[in-house]
Every structure is written in structure tokens, then in C-alpha cells.
Design goal:
This protein is of the alpha/beta class. Helix content is 40%, strand content 12%. The strands form two sheets. The protein has a six-stranded parallel sheet. Strands 8-1-9 form a three-stranded parallel sheet, with helices on one face.
Length: 351
């Protein structure tokens, strides 16, 4: 039997232009047998109505694991001297794109650390070469840059950009990112929106110092910003970081955030993240059942994929590049959905 209090709260959050923090906090604390099932059923209903049953594919290429930053949770942080660093050549990247396209995937995600040795013009050139050869959408995820850099990449053909906020709590954000400021991250997100990008953001769940209230504020921020894409995954402790001894995030907490983000943002694209598949079991099907609608198979060249270790025990790193595509149909079917091989642009109104 549905929990009446939970149902009324869910409806309020769904109907509100900006939901109250008290309502979001309440829903984040639900447990099994106490209304959590109602949350998941409601979020999936919202997903079906605003996004549909299709699951989009985004092919990831992790082209450099060099990074100038020292984020406390990331295995690629500049202070980790045990990382075997690499940069893929333009030819290697283009071969990966060709592989992605051959599998029917129509979005490529070019992701890297904030690598100062790769110039903005080099990335623009790679983008232009991809756009000349393929009918494909390009997403970049290369961190904080100047508005001029973002403009150059947009003019080269990049349509989308991923930049996770990680936390809207200023103290928490600044404490986890040496030499970085939340205000600059917000500036970057604004610049991207102003330039007409389809913008993706998101958070890790389970970070040291994170609270239910701070997560509720993050979800409300997602709704206020009306982002095109939202990536939500668990914090997974890496033994070469300052957070090595902290507990990793819990899958159930991540699923709650996915569900509430779906309810608040309605038609944002939300991936079942690889990190959710890298815990004690693969929770990506669970995420698809509560509101996620994207899977991101990894097409990074095999010898590099194992070196892009943001967190340990990453799923599928020992499989051939792109092998995950073969199990996507089964994953979607298990969640009562199907793979949508379209280019999958934003469902938000054109800004």
C-alpha cells in the first residue's frame, strides 16, 4: 500500500518550480518498507513520461590521464606519482571514434584530466576532423577553461560539455579541491550555457563531509539550472588519494539521488554511471529502473583504459574497447527498456 505522506511529498516536489529543501531531504531519508519503493515507482513514471523507454549510448574516449589538479578523491591527481601517464595521439583518438561509429553509437565523449600540455587548438583540430567524417555528436569533458577556450571548441563543432559541480556546498567543494574555487566552477557552467552548449553536471554521493542537506541543495540546484544532462555516481575511495581510508558511497544513496534528480529535472538525460557498476555488484540496471536513461560504454584504447583510474576496480577495464556495447541490449531489456541508437540531443527547449 502506498505511503500517503510520501506520495503527497513526491507530488509537491514534482509540481514545484523549485521544491522545498525540507521535502527533498525527507525523500532522501526514505528506507525500504517506509516509502522508498514509492519514490522509485514515481521516478520511473516521470522518466517514462518525459524521456520514454529508450536508453541512449555515449561512447567514451579517455584521451589523457595527465591532470594539473589535486582533487582529494581522484586517482589522477597531480600528487599521485604512481600513475603511468599517457596522452593519446590524434590518430589513436580518431581510430577510437571510428570504432564507436561502427557500433552504431552516435555520441562520442572526449574526456581527460586538465592536461596543460594539450592545447586548446589541438583539441579543436581533433573535433573538426571528427565532424568532417562522421554524423556524430561530440561531448567534451576537459574541466575548467576560459570562456574563450569554450567558444573555440563550440565553433569547432562541439555541442555538449560535461562539468560536474561535485558539490554546491562552498566549504565542502573548496576543501576537496586544492587551489580551486566553487565560484570558478559556477563561472564555467554559466559560460557554457551562455555559449549555447548542451551542459551536463552532477555530483558524487558519499563524499567525506557531505550531508543530506547538502545533497538536497545540489538536487535543487540541478532543477534551478535545468541542465541538459546529469551524472550521479558513488564516491569510490582510491588508495593513492587523501581520502584513501574513507568509506565509499552506498549504492542505495546514489539511486535515491538519481530518482529525485529525475523527478526535479523531468527530461534531463541521466546516465547509469560506470561507477555505479563498479561497487559490490553492477547497479546500473537498478539506476535504469529508477530514472536513468543513458549508458556510457568505454572505447578507450585497451592499453590506456586501465591507466585512467579515477577510482579503483573500474568496471570493464580488462575487456576490449567497446565490448560493453554487446551487453547494453541485455541491460536495457532487464530494466524494461530498449537501446535507442539515435544521436540523443537534449530534450530541453532550445535556449
Amino acid at each position: 500500500m502506498a505511503n500517503e505522506v510520501v506520495q503527497k511529498t513526491l507530488q509537491r516536489v514534482f509540481n514545484a518550480k523549485i521544491p522545498s529543501i525540507e521535502d527533498v531531504e525527507f525523500l532522501l531519508t526514505l528506507e525500504q518498507g517506509q516509502g522508498l519503493e514509492d519514490l522509485y515507482a514515481f521516478s520511473q513514471k516521470v522518466c517514462d513520461e518525459f524521456v520514454g523507454k529508450g536508453v541512449l549510448l555515449r561512447g567514451i574516449i579517455e584521451f589523457s590521464n595527465y591532470c594539473k589538479n589535486a582533487c582529494h578523491y581522484c586517482g589522477l591527481n597531480r600528487n599521485n606519482l604512481n600513475v603511468n601517464r599517457y596522452r593519446m595521439s590524434q590518430e589513436e583518438i580518431l581510430k577510437c571514434v571510428d570504432h564507436i561509429y561502427s557500433k552504431g553509437v552516435r555520441t562520442v565523449v572526449l574526456q581527460s584530466g586538465e592536461d596543460p600540455a594539450i592545447s586548446v587548438n589541438e583539441i579543436a583540430k581533433i573535433v573538426e576532423q571528427i565532424m568532417q567524417k562522421y554524423d556524430i555528436a561530440i561531448t567534451l569533458s576537459c574541466g575548467e577553461r576560459s570562456k574563450e577556450d569554450y567558444k573555440l571548441w563550440k565553433n569547432a563543432g562541439v555541442q555538449r560539455y560535461l562539468l560536474r559541480i561535485e558539490s554546491t556546498d562552498e566549504f565542502l567543494y573548496n576543501s576537496l579541491h586544492d587551489g580551486m574555487l566553487l565560484s570558478n566552477r559556477l563561472r564555467c557552467l554559466k559560460d557554457l550555457r551562455d555559449l549555447g552548449y548542451q551542459v551536463g553536471s552532477g555530483i558524487m554521493v558519499g563524499l567525506k563531509g557531505q550531508t543530506v542537506k547538502s545533497i538536497a541543495k545540489d538536487i535543487i540546484f540541478f532543477g534551478e539550472q535545468n541542465f541538459d544532462m546529469m551524472g550521479i555516481g558513488p564516491f569510490i575511495a582510491h588508495n593513492q588519494t587523501p581520502l584513501a581510508n574513507e568509506p565509499s558511497g552506498k549504492a542505495e544513496d546514489v539511486l535515491k539521488v538519481v530518482a529525485l534528480t529525475r523527478i526535479v529535472t523531468k527530461n534531463s538525460h541521466i546516465p547509469a554511471t560506470t561507477a555505479l557498476g563498479s561497487l559490490d555488484r553492477d547497479y546500473r540496471i537498478d539506476a535504469l529502473k529508477v530514472g536513468a536513461n543513458v549508458i556510457m560504454p568505454n572505447f578507450t584504447k585497451d592499453e590506456y583504459k586501465v591507466l585512467y583510474e579515477i577510482y579503483p576496480n573500474k568496471r570493464c577495464i580488462n575487456e576490449p574497447a567497446g565490448a560493453c556495447v554487446n551487453c547494453n541490449e541485455a541491460m536495457a531489456k532487464a530494466a524494461g527498456k530498449y537501446i535507442d541508437y539515435s544521436i540523443g540531443h537534449s530534450l530541453k527547449p532550445i535556449k
